[in-house]
Specification:
single chain, alpha/beta, six-stranded mixed β-sheet, four-stranded antiparallel β-sheet, 13 strands
Amino acid sequence: MSQETVIDVDNLNVRYDQFHAVKDLTFRVQRGELYALIGTNGAGKTSTLEVVEGHRASSSGTVTIFGEDPRNRKAVRPRMGIMLQDSGFSADLSAMETVTLIGRLTGREDQPGRVLDVVGLTTKADTRVSALSGGEKRRLDFATAIYGSPELIILDEPTTGLDVQSRDDLWGVVDRLREDGSTIVLTTHYLEEAQQRADRIGLMHEGAFRMQGTVAELTRTLPGTISFTLAHDAPPLPLQSSLAANGRHLIETDSLQQDLHALLAWAQVNSTELRDLDAGPTRLDDVFRSIARN
């Protein structure tokens, strides 16, 4: 991954009258990176993206894309593809006409038929937008974002409304674009997508970053867990645990491997079965819940 900065956000603030939606937000996205911007409802993600996309002016702070003001559409739009949550395409245009129109408006060059094939809409090329299913419309949104294989692609909730196979197909296309050097900015409510795919994540709450870093850096902020059930006559555990309402023992630990080894050794010595044993580091959704509570 290159150290060239594609997106540079410095002390961004967005206000709507008295409401302070985004507060002193600073982050950078490097070329070739997949950066996930996630957060609680009303956290300020949409306002942040609107400024990055050039659709909204900031109240203060600076934002540049490829070193340019994102509102300089002539300089930025040919290099950037955007998949909005709802693109609002004309219902009377066909899928082919829609993709062709977006290509002309953005100044990116490609073959509309090729792009429709990539997203699995070849058989729907002559179908009007109004006749497409929800999932097909979402794939058309994706097609317009990747038209011309832009250097920067912003994906706002890209897999909402897609079935499992369509999600897998979309991520396969994203992987190939990244291999060719595209930079991806992602927002999603499917936290497992961010955990599996993001190089770095910014976690927003109430307009500001609460955490920012790699998945490993974020999940290390909370202890790992070991959970299991025991027979009622089992000897005392070697580690401090809590007992949940469903009868499962829970051990929280900052030394997962060491404590799991000690627990397994104890079970072996005492001929005790650790039933339904589950152990692992903190998941991203646990970190997400922790910032939502604070």
